[in-house]
Amino acid sequence: MSVAPIQRAASAPHRGLIEVATLISLYALYEVVRGQGNATVDVAQKHTDWIVSLERHLHVFGERSVQQAAHAVPGLSPVLGIAYIVLHFLGTGVFLVWLFRKHRERFPLARNVLIAATGIALVFYVVFPVAPPRLAGLGFVDTVSKSAKVNLSSDVLGSLYNPFAAVPSLHFGYALLVGLTLASVARRTFVRIIGWSYPAVMLFIIVGTGNHFFFDAAAGGLTIGAGYLLATGVGARRREPRSRAAARSAVLTY
Question: Is the pTM of this model over 0.85?
Fold first, then answer.
């Protein structure tokens, strides 16, 4: 079976409704698959203990201090709880629409990186379940449930949501992709500043709400990097036949 049609589809933007429908369908599939994990609490907790031990060994285990600092600011906790939910979905969605409308030539790569990184993340959610800080018994507060009044462990959300799908953090991974792309393509200085700042803001949000360790964010960044390599590899294979054809044409003309 030829992969040329897939490469052509991946290397070009399509109609807006097709792109929206495709991404929504893929993300729905992602949520369904992610929610089918059969990880036990004991296994997830062991992986969490390993992460905490590694961070302590590297002297970077400072997540509780970040959350305590966030909770010390009046009114900040509810904002972080809402931002944790809204920015991941609405923020990423608005970015994709903006990129499609303003820089359509850059859209296929961002879309492909997003899809590839999400696929990679699903594999890790299955083979390496991790209890997030808020469920690890380490003194973290579940800011989203307590302040934003959204119970991530409820029966309704639990039917799709896998509480042990913490590594890699796609909250941070998506934010890194959004931020770097904004900073590289935006013409206005304030938009580029938003781009450079966005990953750091998201890191503060996911740690301040007790949903991720620094390790999770680092894994999310590496996942986006791997997604980029896969996405650019598809584009390179798509361009290679054209390059060979052009070379043969040049030789014959000569």
Answer: no
